[in-house]
UniProtKB/TrEMBL annotation:
Species whose genome carries this gene: Luteolibacter pohnpeiensis
Statement: the UniProt record of this protein carries the keyword Ligase: no
UniProtKB keywords: Signal
Listed name of the protein: Molybdopterin-dependent oxidoreductase
Gene3D superfamilies, A to Z: Oxidoreductase, molybdopterin-binding domain
Domain Oxidoreductase molybdopterin-binding: 50-154
InterPro entries: OxRdtase_Mopterin-bd_dom, OxRdtase_Mopterin-bd_sf
Signal sequence, start to end: 1-20
Keyword Lipid biosynthesis in record: no
Length: 161
């Protein structure tokens, strides 16, 4: 058997499997967002400076809209105990970031955080994966998580002493 044909075939199968991976949203309910469901979500565009220090036009779904789907408190409901809720976002490689719920709410920020699926009119691919979090206004890109697979609403509580 020709190994020159086997390895590219394995690489293509792996790439196809990664792109077929649905997005998992978990909060008061758990939702699996496949490619068809994703295409039906409202998309918006924003311009931001990417990892490469160049300005790009990103297209994707506002995090506030995704969190709404899993019952996250928003707007006037985001006060009191709800202010201790956070959002844990996980990438394919296990990299994780956390936002307070308020940081992603439209009533607390002037520019939306989006989960982008395209940049400059082209679908994201390669190192970015199919979904990348775009956080306009962050001084560093550490929270611009690439290859997003899971978004989970968590409650933060002080540990018992």
């Amino acid at each position: 058997m020709n190994s020159k044909l086997i390895f590219p075939a394995i690489a293509l199968a792996t790439l196809a499997a990664v792109h077929a991976q649905p997005l998992i949203l978990q909060g008061k309910s758990k939702i699996t967002v496949d490619a068809e469901a994703w295409s039906k979500l409202p998309h918006e565009d924003l311009t931001a400076t990417g990892h490469d220090k160049k300005e790009h036009r990103y297209s994707g779904v506002a995090m506030a809209k995704l969190l709404e789907k899993i019952g996250a408190p928003a707007g006037d409901q985001l006060r009191g105990k709800a202010m201790t809720e956070a959002v844990l976002i996980t990438a394919a490689d296990g990299y994780q970031i956390v936002f307070s719920l308020a940081e992603l709410d439209a009533s607390y920020r002037s520019n939306p955080v989006i989960l982008a699926d395209a940049a400059d009119g082209k679908p994201l691919e390669g190192n970015e994966g199919k979904l990348m979090l775009i956080v306009p206004g962050d001084a560093k890109h550490a929270r611009w998580i690439r290859q997003v697979e899971r978004i989970v609403l968590v409650s933060v509580q002080e540990p018992a002493s």
